Amino acid sequence: MKRQDSSKSRVPFFLMITILSLPEFLKKLDPPMVIPRSKLFRWHPEFEVDKVAEIVPDELPQPPNGDTLTSARDVLDRAKNLFSYNQRMEKALENVIEDSSKTENAIKSKSDQSDSPLSAALKGLPKALLQKVRAKQAAKALQVMTRSPAQDKEALQYSRLPEIARILRNLFIVEKKGVLPMDFVIEKLGHSYRENLTSFELKEHVHLLLRLLPGWLVLHNIRNTNYLKLSKNGDMSKVTNKLESLAAKKNNLTLLST
């Protein structure tokens, strides 16, 4: 038996630290959220990955009787004491000191303004309304974090249907026919749709339309060839509204308005 290289399947150490920090973050929310780690597929929208506590490094041995230079100012002072320094070098070091000071002030200013706009907007609201808003936020965050890749794919497919339905209708109008071969329709869809989808992916969307709109689009198989028939009496505005509503539900866009 060949020995497998387990390093390829290992989770990077820093990523593991971040993953382990997420449940603790969720427990501190208002209201708190307790989600099994196996159900988490994404970060919480407010979880700041770059602010996870740093790993405490082991102490390195200190050099014997050595002075530590921790800033450009220390280097400049040491240079003055050790030798008659070059004016150009002094000017360069002073520029470094000035730039470092500006950077520190900018970081401090940014941290002072770190409160999210949403948190500021919620200030002053009645307690009952505030709790309702936070509950909706928590429900939305839960949906985002626990939605599986398969659910993501389905939601994406539903979001494409309104545009694909409009292209289909225009195709039948241009061709001036009530029935068209499936392969012909798929080819034309590939040329007209804004995304670069494969024939297989386009067929998936067409079959989804067949299932969701059985009276508007119908599949016929004649002599081992599939044909699509589009209803002449179908109201396109109603078709579009229905597909947009279904797409919104799949993407849980109605969650915030309930």
List key phrases describing it.
mainly alpha, Arc Repressor Mutant, subunit A, 3-stranded antiparallel β-sheet, disordered N terminus, disordered C terminus, DNA replication factor Cdt1, cell cycle, Cdt1_C_WH_dom_sf, Cdt1, DNA polymerase binding
What does this structure look like?
Strands 1-3-2 form a three-stranded antiparallel β-sheet. It is elongated, with a radius of gyration of 31 Å. It is built from nine helices and three strands. It has 258 residues and is mainly alpha-helical. Residues 1-9 and 253-258 have low confidence and may be disordered. The protein has helices spanning 13-27, 72-82, 87-112, 117-122, 127-146, 149-175, 182-192, 199-212, 236-250, and strands at residues 179-181, 217-222, 225-230. It folds into three domains: 12-52 and 128-146, no CATH class; 72-101, no CATH class; 149-257, DNA replication factor Cdt1, C-terminal WH domain (Arc Repressor Mutant, subunit A), CATH 1.10.10. One of its GO terms (molecular function) is DNA binding. Belongs to the Cdt1 family. Residues 100-119 are annotated as: Disordered. This is DNA replication factor Cdt1.
What is the fold's blueprint, element by element?
Blueprint: H1 13-27, H2 72-82, H3 87-112, H4 117-122, H5 127-146, H6 149-175, E1 179-181, H7 182-192, H8 199-212, E2 217-222, E3 225-230, H9 236-250
Antiparallel strand pairs: 1-3, 2-3
Helix pairs in contact: 2-3, 6-7, 6-8, 6-9, 7-8
Q: Tally the helices: what do you get?
A: 9
Gross morphology is elongated
Whole-number count of domains: 3
Average pLDDT reading = 75
The run of helices and strands is: HHHHHHEHHEEH
Our Rg estimate from Cα atoms comes to: 31 Å
N→C terminal distance:
58 Å
Beta-strand segment tally: 3
Major beta sheet, specifics?
A: 3 strands, antiparallel
Enumerate the strands of the largest sheet in spatial order, edge to edge or round the barrel: 1-3-2
Assign the CATH class of the largest domain.
Mainly Alpha
Low-confidence stretches: 1-9, 253-258
Residue share in β-strands: 5-15%
User: Which architecture name of the largest domain does CATH use?
Assistant: Orthogonal Bundle
Biased composition (Basic and acidic residues): 100-113
GO molecular function: DNA binding; DNA polymerase binding
InterPro entries: Cdt1, Cdt1_C, Cdt1_C_WH_dom_sf, CDT1_Gemini-bd-like, WH_DNA-bd_sf
Domain DNA replication factor Cdt1 C-terminal: 129-223
